[in-house]
Amino acid sequence: FEERSRGKALAPQVKREAIGSMITQHHLSERRACRLVGLSRDSYRHPPQADQVTVELHEKILEIAHARRRFGYRRIHDLLRPQFPGVNHKRVYRLYRQANLAVRRRKKGKRPVNERVPLQLARKVNEVWSMDFVSDSLSGGRRLKYLTVADDFSHESVDIAVDFGISGQYVTRVLDRAALFRGYPQAVRTDNGPEFTSRAFMAWALAHGIRHILIQPGRPMQNGYIESFNGKFRDEHLNECWFETLHQARKAVAVWRADYNEVRPHSS
Fold it and tell me: Is 156 in a helix, a strand, or coil?
């Protein structure tokens, strides 16, 4: 015990645990165990109590972590700063670890080596909108279809439409509605789905002078911005919700989209 106690300096909490182990497992007296570890008996008997601010901070971390399960301690720290100004990220990390919180890493499957086509970086808002579809279902089994539209420059969710079926003409109505508030994009990027290669959609793009960027079949990462957005949408919304009606799904999507655009901190 004396050789161990002369090694690397230990934190008080670790020393208390070591003393407790000596007393219960090796039947040493409290006085001798404290002397070996290098901690006073008074400090061992009276561990520090968390103040009110720390208790509130701990409870808030748990609340955010359970509501946003894909958030690590850094994003939780970003959300805490308005309510706890000046809070240190190391303090948040310590409380985060004490609560045994961690974001589970996704297992990545092995993919064949292909030549990557780099995305052209947008330089301003409304330069390029990326679009794709996400599938889901109601509790009764009926399929739902989500049209997700994101701005490549600001990474903002332009719109998310939900319905049982979405045609090419439906897509144009969604984009016209979004354009009322923010204007039309210079270009749109899509895959080769029938909704995006339909006569209605192609005629819409031509009529508004919008360049249509079609990715190569089987190369979803050429539309990487919307793929990344859809991953967040699935993890933070679809995997956490179970809807009974279309109206309920639309209402929940509107709440999530407002939170994504106005509250949620983004790593970019």
Answer: coil
The mean-pLDDT minimum among 20-24, 45-49, 238-242 falls in: 238-242
> Minimal CA–CA distance to 149: which of 164, 119, 165, 170?
170
CA pair distance 263, 252, nearest whole angstrom: 16
- Going through the chain in order, the beta strands assigned E by DSSP cover 128-137, 143-151, 157-163, 187-190, 211-214
Amino acid in position 87: V
Calpha distance 97→67 (Å, rounded): 17
Nearest to 235 by CA among 113, 118, 75: 75
Q: What is the largest CA-CA distance in the chain?
A: 87
> Exposed/middle/buried for 8, CB within 10 Å: 0-12, 13-18, 19+?
exposed
Q: How far apart are CA 92 and CA 117, in angstroms?
A: 39
Burial class (CB in 10 A: 0-12, 13-18, 19+), 37: buried
Overall average pLDDT of the 227-239 stretch: 84
Residue 3 tokens read as 């050789």
Task: Write the pLDDT tens digit of every residue in 179-208.
Answer: 999 999 999 999 989 999 898 999 999 999
Residues recorded for the chain:
268
Name the phi and psi angles at 3, rounded to 5: -65, -40
Which residues is 211 bridged to in the sheet? 187
